[in-house]
Amino acid sequence: MASPARLVMNGWYMGAWADEVGRKLMQRWIAGRPVCFYRLLDGTVNAIEDRCPHRRFPLSLGRLDGDVIECNYHGYRIDGTGGCVGVAEQSDRPKASVHRFPLVERDGVVWIWPGDPEQADESLLPDTSWLTSPGWTHVHGVVPLKARHLLLVENLLDLTHETFLHPGSIGNAAVAATPIDVTSEGHRVSFTRHMVGIEAPPFYEKSMGLTSPIDRWQDGDFYAPGIFQLNIRLAPTGTEEPEGFHMKVLYGLTPATETETHDFFALGRDYRIHDEELSKFQLDQQLAVMKEDVDALEIQEVMVATEPDGVRESSIRSDVAGIRGRRLLEKMAAKEAGAAAPARRTRPAATGAATGVAT
Amino acid sequence: MASPARLVMNGWYMGAWADEVGRKLMQRWIAGRPVCFYRLLDGTVNAIEDRCPHRRFPLSLGRLDGDVIECNYHGYRIDGTGGCVGVAEQSDRPKASVHRFPLVERDGVVWIWPGDPEQADESLLPDTSWLTSPGWTHVHGVVPLKARHLLLVENLLDLTHETFLHPGSIGNAAVAATPIDVTSEGHRVSFTRHMVGIEAPPFYEKSMGLTSPIDRWQDGDFYAPGIFQLNIRLAPTGTEEPEGFHMKVLYGLTPATETETHDFFALGRDYRIHDEELSKFQLDQQLAVMKEDVDALEIQEVMVATEPDGVRESSIRSDVAGIRGRRLLEKMAAKEAGAAAPARRTRPAATGAATGVAT
Amino acid sequence: MASPARLVMNGWYMGAWADEVGRKLMQRWIAGRPVCFYRLLDGTVNAIEDRCPHRRFPLSLGRLDGDVIECNYHGYRIDGTGGCVGVAEQSDRPKASVHRFPLVERDGVVWIWPGDPEQADESLLPDTSWLTSPGWTHVHGVVPLKARHLLLVENLLDLTHETFLHPGSIGNAAVAATPIDVTSEGHRVSFTRHMVGIEAPPFYEKSMGLTSPIDRWQDGDFYAPGIFQLNIRLAPTGTEEPEGFHMKVLYGLTPATETETHDFFALGRDYRIHDEELSKFQLDQQLAVMKEDVDALEIQEVMVATEPDGVRESSIRSDVAGIRGRRLLEKMAAKEAGAAAPARRTRPAATGAATGVAT
């Protein structure tokens, strides 16, 4: 059975949509750790380890009293820094604390850094200003996925799957038929796919009123370990930028545990931005497309988890972005594992060897 | 992931309420072993390993023929001692047997000793004569719990949790606010908590008609590995024993498997003992309180089972009884594990180190 | 916990009934491997590993295009030999393939060889021509079983269990009371049980109109690892062959995984072969009997899987066939495991030692 690759802890993951977090305590598992999300009295988002330092009861089941959480099992009181400030009804003041996670709230997203706080670097976050830009609107949410993080990363870095998995909405033959250009730098892997003079897929036909032939661009950026943005342009064939319809999709690919993932999404557009019916249609479509992905990835997880050791993969040119993404994650995980155990982790057991592709 | 501590096998556990056991064979798992409970023709309770010596089919699915169980798979016939006395329809008389467990039936309780029968010592059982005393009445039952035994032991040895987990019934601020006195000797850990001039919690107000202020006593005795008795006194403030309302609670804390526990209980009182409506009210309340505990402990089990190695606990004065109880269990388990492996078992992985408390 | 014995891979297992396989792709797990069954354009049955060589998506969720399966994740195209013949919409022609399993379609059965194709030998298949013989008719199907393969093998090789588990249909005291003769050769273990002057069990009374006393024969042949045939004769006491009612049962005992088994069956007769009501009655009865077995075996699986190491079994004369069957499987598995690890595998952990029986 193929074990999942070690999770990358030092990186920004989407922890929540800002509108999910309030004065009601919320538990969410992030990269194998239980996290309690809430807002302090001044409105700041806060996230601490959701395990009482006393007897491990989830703090998220406790009571929020000002900025202090009172554990509902024996009354330990934990302030916003994660420090214990006393025990309800008792005079003890135990020296104890739980981890407080670095957070950034920006453009309606709460980013969380599950690893070493010293390394948390806000400048690693990509630009997501379109989420709050006046010329844009978007729908967003989060979908649970019972599959390992890497499978979702690879899904998004090889969009040829749209042709086969999403033929009724966003996919048609042109996607698989059009090669990508791939570049990478640092923790980023990018691809561009510019389809010219193609038929409009159903989803875009309906939501834009475009008639074929059209040009369709898919420019994707993966910021390892967990952020993916897709820039989409659709326009009558031959027209040039900035003409056309623009869409952006932000995915937060956040491991919950080694084999479960939160699939955060925001789908934005720069046209008919006040058309609520269109927003509702796009949300429904996006959720339908993601359900097709979730169904496929959960089956793929079973296939990967039950395979014997030593299964080798076949890869082709369209896998180049996915393979680079995987290698980035491997490199980051190996670095975190330290010099002690790098040799065995050059390739995650979950995904085997890629062959036949120069990357 | 924190593995459960090794179960203590040499000790009395509650196996069943006497009224559960009759001529109908009953399977119940005790300390990781399947046990078949039933009564012999003369009314004696009997318990043998519930696994046929032939092909492991549960004997409890067989047919009781006099004092002999006939296995329903291939007809092995097992008498009350656990010995095979033949095979139905066949002339073979195989030398085979299953374990017969030491039992004591007393005061309506069937006690079982899952470990070495040579060490079974009836004098280790605490006095439970109030269960059948003419001046007392009680309600009783058993509740399934998907959490390791130790978590239930610690729950009962630190009743400050009543303040937070059971505020609507038996808990109020006074419980957590009142320190305990702890004593221990041999396999027993005892605590007393005498609350004076406090407000009456809802449960007692209703069932006794008491008005505040009252005095409330909680005197608990844990007999390791699996028996807990609580003596409760409620009375108008300032009155002395024997004035007041007395209640007793017997808990049988019986591991089913390493991570599942039978939570046996009897709740008794020495007042309005013929009031069946009150008995029904007290049973409902007791089950409601236990449901709050079960919900909390099953969540705690998840938190403990998924935690990384090396999690340390914070402890305070109110944990003294719980910590002594845990150490007793550790010592007993280590002794059973023998001289071969004591060093690694000075502290169970499940619970980590207690700090900051002199016990 | 007792682990299952290693599965025997080099042998014929029933993969499907011929009428289950058509132009619709079908996934079935065989001996721990996912298999995609379908028919080629010329009607030939085909079975390939159900895991795309690209990213492990099940091919059975793909689209059948002539004799080529197109994977529904990224479009890999796999022909009937298991070889990749291209990728839809892309010009790549990756060198990749999946395993193609040796198959034999005969008498309405699709036999599959999950191990080394070089060793697949059609002559190892027993004669099943009665399935399509003009003087016979049969009902057939497959029942899922959550228990390890060996437990089902042993169930069928010791029919004394009919007396206890199936008293309302095919079992009565005579079965357990009548000893068997056992012979074996190569990969076959056979037993005969000839009951003379016995009462007719309910199932046969109803379906044949026989009145007691009758003679009843049960002659069973186990072809390791996974085929069992039972020849049944019922006739008024004292009459000789070929007089009487004849029935045959074919069981395909096919491991799905280490702890799950496909229980294929065909129940045939040589009388009233055009009586469809009788066929329906016999199918219902057969399924009812198999449900009794499945319920028992699934409980037995729990007992075996949770038992401590070192449990020893008691065995009697009626176990001789079962023990020989088990030893055959052990020997075959040990041979496959190779010279490297035979010493540890002389006896599967799942079943322990048999004692007290000369076999």
List the chains of the largest interface with their residue counts.
A-B, 25 and 25 residues
Strand arrangement, largest sheet of chain A? 11-17-16-15-14-13-12
- From the N-terminal CA to the C-terminal CA of chain A, the straight-line distance is 28 Å
CATH class division of the largest domain in chain A: Alpha Beta
Radius of gyration of chain A in whole Å, from Cα? 22 Å
Number of strands of chain A: 17
| Principal-axis shape of chain A | globular
Secondary-structure element pattern of chain A, one letter each: EEEEEEEEEEEHHHEEHEEEEHH
- In quaternary terms, these chains amount to homotrimer
CATH superfamily of the largest domain in chain A: Naphthalene 1,2-dioxygenase Alpha Subunit, Chain A, domain 1
Instruction: Characterize the largest beta sheet of chain A: strand count, sense, and whether it forms a barrel.
Output: 7 strands, antiparallel
Number of helices of chain A: 6
Structural class of chain A: alpha+beta
Kindly state the percentage of residues in helix of chain A. 10-25%
Overall structural domain count of chain A: 2
Q: Topology, pairings included?
A:
The structure is a homotrimer of 359-residue chains.
Chain A: E1 13-17, E2 26-30, E3 33-39, E4 45-49, E5 63-65, E6 68-70, E7 76-78, E8 84-87, E9 103-106, E10 109-112, E11 137-145, H1 149-157, H2 161-165, H3 173-177, E12 181-185, E13 188-198, H4 202-208, E14 214-223, E15 227-236, E16 245-257, E17 260-269, H5 276-305, H6 320-337
Antiparallel strand pairs in A: 1-10, 2-3, 3-4, 5-6, 6-7, 7-8, 9-10, 11-17, 12-13, 13-14, 14-15, 15-16, 16-17
